[in-house]
Amino acid sequence: MWCLARRKGSEWYVGAMTNETARTIDIPLSFLGATESRRHLQTAATPTDIVSGHRDAVSGSDVLTLKLAASGGATARLRPVRSVKP
After folding, report:
1. How, if at all, do strands 63-68 and 23-28 pair?
2. Strand runs (DSSP E) across 1-86, as ranges?
């Protein structure tokens, strides 16, 4: 099993993959700091079935929990929440 987080500009990309053992992993999001971010998550329910969605706000005090299927993985894209001015 491996997990990797990379940043490009203000966006973070998290990827995780496992072997033939299904598992749940918790990833602390402390690298986000105080910035509130929206997340877009894609997981492989099976090696050929991708599930996409789960947009919600997270911050550096949160933990991202990923349920990885056997021989599966997940990706998350974390983008800063932009404040909307009236």
Report:
1. antiparallel
2. 2-8, 11-17, 23-28, 37-46, 49-53, 57-58, 63-68, 73-80
pTM of the model: 0.81
Return the biggest CA–CA distance within the chain: 51
pLDDT by residue, tens only, the chain of 86 residues? 899 999 999 999 999 999 999 999 999 999 998 888 988 888 876 667 788 876 778 999 999 998 898 988 999 999 998 754 44
